[in-house]
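Troubleshooting: if your tokenizer reports a length mismatch, compare your output against this known-good record of 197 residues.
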Amino acid sequence: MKKGLLLTIAACSLFSVSANAKIWRPYIGVDYSYIDAKYESPYNKQLAQEFNSVTGSVGIKLTTNLAVEGFYQQSLGSENNTAYNTQLINDGSDSSVKIKAYGVDLVSDFINLDMVEILTSVGIGQYKADVNRNYYYGGKMMNVTNSFDGTGVRFGVGAQVNITDSLGVRAMGRYVLTDVEAIKSIKEFTVGLRYTF
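Known-good structure output:
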């Protein structure tokens, strides 16, 4: 009984502190992302490595300097690449790749100067690469499609400039280690907006 009362008082105290600190504030975001993918095998190095993508996110500030943020990312169309056989004329391949990802990040503004926040993030995402290849051998074409998916651990650093109490501009650099069969790692740079309610 006493323990239950103490826990209730502690929870109420935390709630009142949270209200004064303006935490538990939800926000939404949209980013442009430039992706540079590194492939595991020479076979996959024929694929495009650079992608333009868009990312949507929904987050909530849990404490004065920690937020949890869910995201969905998708490349803007397919990125194409062509590789030719140097020994046989007209033999080679062309390929197109789409990348999608979704997951969650913990974002900390470990330096907060009100208008400017210095950010770090760590998270986990599920990544998928849809690959379409056309092979040309002796005047014949063969098409092969594959989907590779797996998990990526995400590490980021960046900054946010708060234009108003509700609107901020954020830029992040991120490094992702994946266990996707085709992709070894991803470097990405994002810039976008966050609107806090």
